[in-house]
Amino acid sequence: MCTGKCSRVVGVGLWPLALTCIICNLLLCFPDWDTQYVQDGGRLLTPEVLYLGGLVGGGAMILIPAIHIQATGQQGCCGNRCGMFLSILFALVGVAGSVYAVSVSALGLVNGPLCEVANGNWERPFHTTDEELSEQSYLFNTSAWDACVNPPGVVRFNVILFSLVLAAALLELLLCGVQVLNGLFGCLCGTCNKKQAKSPTQTQY
Fold first, then answer.
1. What span, in angstroms and rounded, lies between the C-alpha atoms of 98 and 66?
2. C-alpha closest to that of 54 among 100, 114, 90, 117
3. Full-model pTM
4. Are 194 and 203 in contact (CB under 8 A)?
5. CA 61 to CA 96: how far, in whole Å?
6. How many CA atoms lie within 13 A of 93 on its CB side?
7. What confidence tens digit (pLDDT) does each residue in 123-173 have?
């Protein structure tokens, strides 16, 4: 696969992943599909939701690079060595965004949701200062999820959506890393767009 085709594959692959991160982050704002939790500045939402790891990091900071990266695989102003060099810079922006999304979603999974517990207080019953996951983590003990009374089902809701953001962001990180290497080869060796553009008659003498 030439560098131009590789850029097209990376660019196309980033689109659904970025949209997945955006949609999941937006859904996290509405636990139990209720809008009341997003009111008052989202004080009843899990803090990591408000960090917008999926919306900004895995979303906007991926969509913008995806546009240029995909364009480097097309014939035109971006399908050259200069375009490949710029794709490296855009891919590095994507790396930064995906790392941010991974960090925020991982924290959201480790610390657990903000919810109302049995005594009526809003707190994070699964929050721990130990950053290492263990068998005692609530993630591996579903019977402990009943500690959250409201919003109903918020633990499962957060685990599923944060996991989707984490998985999508890891794939984004992989694709952006591939594009950094691909762009480097494109700068040194050029793209194959010009070769593909030649017609059979141009090779005849």
1. 13
2. 100
3. 0.84
4. no
5. 8
6. 17
7. 999 887 655 555 578 888 888 898 999 999 999 999 999 999 999 999 999
